[in-house]
Design goal:
This protein is an alpha+beta fold and 106 residues long. Helix content is 32%, strand content 26%. β3 and β4 form a beta hairpin.
Length: 106
């Protein structure tokens, strides 16, 4: 009986080691303390490569992104008005939003 208990303990330990090894092979474990979380929340996000590209309307940023933060006014669940200053969602550059008048005809 003593050998059976030892054998079952060894098998359980080996299975546990295998599970832990698989877990760390698949995932990265990050450890944060409360101070790290508070610093990240209070940190203002600065974009090092942001440029001021306002002046000519653009539908694509120089970084290649076509997603922007635009201020808009809604009326009856539709966009009623939007501001022409927009910010690139990727690099933070400031651009001028295009309007239908700016569309070039080919």
């Amino acid at each position: 009986m003593k050998w059976l208990n030892r054998l079952s303990f060894i098998l359980t330990a080996l299975i546990g080691v295998g599970v832990v090894r698989d877990f760390f092979a698949k995932y990265e474990v990050l450890v944060f303390n409360k101070n790290d979380v508070d610093e990240a929340r209070n940190e203002t996000e600065t974009q090092e490569h942001a440029m001021d590209l306002r002046g000519s309307p653009s539908h694509e940023c120089v970084c290649g992104s076509n997603q922007f933060y635009v201020r808009a006014v809604f009326h009856d669940y539709e966009i009623a008005q939007y501001f022409l200053d927009m910010q690139c969602a990727n690099c933070g550059s400031l651009l001028t939003a295009p309007t239908p008048v700016d569309r070039t005809t080919e």
